[in-house]
Each structure stands twice: as C-alpha cells, then as structure tokens.
Design goal:
With 81 residues, the protein is mainly alpha-helical. The protein has 2 helices and no strands.
Length: 81
C-alpha cells in the first residue's frame, strides 16, 4: 500500500497548502474564498487522518497464506494444490 500513502501525502500537502494560502490572503487583507477554505480544509483533515491511520497499521512481512500454509493461488507464486 505504498502508493496509497504517497497519494494521501500529496493530497494532505495540497489541501493544507490551499488552506494556508487562503488564510494568508485573509491576513494580508486580500479577498479569499471561504468555500475553498472549508472544502480544502475538509480534504486536508480527512486525508491527514487516513494517512495517520495508514501508518499505524502493522505491516506484515510474511506472504498471505490464506490460513492453510500455502500461498494463495491469486498471488501466482505457488499453487494451492
């Protein structure tokens, strides 16, 4: 699931960046879009929580055997017969 962590990281950084940029405009007394802050803030929060949850899962170093001591047929590594 390495790709999912990378994608979640990119989405988290992008969502956080949009929120920070809009809040920076607010501090500079420039116009900003509240809907963007709300939408991308939600995207940031959800992706950050998923990323933290993904990193908490223990990673298995053994192949998936399906409980019978042999690798699953779907892996193509060894037949289950």
């Amino acid at each position: 699931m390495r790709r999912s962590r990378i994608v979640l990281g990119v989405i988290t950084v992008y969502g956080g960046g949009v929120v920070v940029a809009n809040l920076w405009n607010a501090l500079a007394d420039r116009p900003f879009n509240v809907a963007y802050v709300a939408a991308f803030g939600g995207i940031f929060a959800v992706s950050a929580l998923l990323l933290v949850n993904e990193n908490r899962k223990p990673r298995s170093t053994t192949p998936d055997t399906g409980g019978n001591g042999r690798w699953k047929w779907s892996t193509g590594m060894r037949s289950s017969r």
